[in-house]
Amino acid sequence: MRLTQLSKAFIRSAAYERRFLRKNPWDLTMVVWIPLLTVLLIWWIFSQTQITNLPIGVIDQDNGPVANTAVRYLDASPTLSVRQMYYSAAEAESAILQRDIYAVVIIPEDFSRNILSSKSAPLILQVNAQYGTHSGIIQTGVQAVAGTLSAGVEIQRLIKQGMAPSQAAIAYSPISIQRISLFNAATDYQQFLASTVIPALLHILAMVIGATTIGRELRDRQLGRWYGFIASAQAYDNISGSISDSVSANISANISANVNNNVADNTVQKIAALSQPATKLPNSAAKDNTNQKPVSTLPSVHMGVLLFGLLGKYFWPMLTYGLWSILALWLATPQESVASSAVFATYLGLLLLMMLSFWLGAIFTLGSFSLRMGLSATGFISAPSYAFAGVTFPYIAISDSAKHWSDALPLTHYLKLHIAQMQMQAPVAISLPILYGLAIATVVAMMLTTLLTKRALAHPERWGAR
């Protein structure tokens, strides 16, 4: 088949989809505006790049000078904020249950006297560990305050014994830790979470679009009508049901060339036949008085036309998601310079992920002949995929069966590429196998979608399922 015929199939299919989106604002919103709002909303949610001032409570049973110093240190910590002083454990527990505070620090009786007497004086921390991130930050902050207090008390004791301040500091802590953060040194949660959550949500939306774009043709029994539109040399307006201007012009030219007026009637009959491919026209409608040939109910399915038609049908979602992917990567680019090759590799990987998501959504719908089943499958696969990607929970710590499932998800591999290139600034060569894998998976999914669409065209009796 000539390239011009394939390109016409692509253009007709894109025009078909454009007219549908123009007449259906909700579908247009799903394709264009919801992904944009998703990108902007997630970035706004994480606009405060660091977690600070987590509310805690304090029960001071000592009320001594050292206890008062501990309370001031806790409130001065950048990650903590003493929301309220409580006078009973029941009152503090009620505040934790209502999420007014996330932890309570109990300063026991004789806390100051025990410290001044060189005895053990623990601070009791009760934290709501249900919130893992909050819990870890609060424990780190309280531990830092306890360490600062302990150091101050011990150094003062050594100085009173006649030791120089510098020697006292070394004597208190002869071994120190020099911590060097290799990546994300500022602990920027916008870079850590937002830049990876956005592709995960776009992945979910893309699979939904992939399922609904082809699924509505099955649901509305319009799959044959769509293929007839992209394959027929005589195009018609699928949405309004009227003959397009080009067809009208051709008919007028044929009439002026002394062709029988029944030809125009036959054109209309072809259009009606394409909209209901499973129903054959009666002989009286298929033949006119001039012994014309019988009207074919559906053009023969050509794989090339079908493939280019599907590409045209998904052209607008691919275009819009490609644009919003640029925005997402621009927002995710850290302040320090990132190599252009790394940005290009990440963008290419994100484009491949979006295209693969469209095809996977279509595969689940076409495989089941049901839009409802297709949407259920896309939700089952895409919605929890971020949890298996190894971003928030270490990949190395999950079970072997969960690792197998994680390795089968395309989002896992893209996020490995994203983190390596955008946050760790690794050489592009490290991520090339992921790009190759995503490209191969996209081509395979595209061909499988074409085959399943051809199968669906051959079984019009299964159209119309919800």
UniProtKB/TrEMBL annotation:
GO MF, one annotated term: ABC-type transporter activity
Protein's name according to its UniProt entry: ABC transporter permease
Chief location bin: membrane
Location in or out of the cell: Cell membrane
UniProt keyword annotations, A-Z: Cell membrane, Membrane, Transmembrane, Transmembrane helix
Domain ABC-2 type transporter transmembrane residue range list: 28-221
Entry GO CC: plasma membrane
UniProt xrefs under PANTHER family: INNER MEMBRANE TRANSPORT PERMEASE YHHJ (PTHR30294:SF47), MEMBRANE COMPONENT OF ABC TRANSPORTER YHHJ-RELATED (PTHR30294)
InterPro entries xrefs: ABC-2_transporter_component, ABC2_TM
TM regions (residue ranges): 28-46, 192-215, 314-332, 344-366, 378-398, 434-453
Superkingdom, natural source: Bacteria
Membrane topology: Multi-pass membrane protein
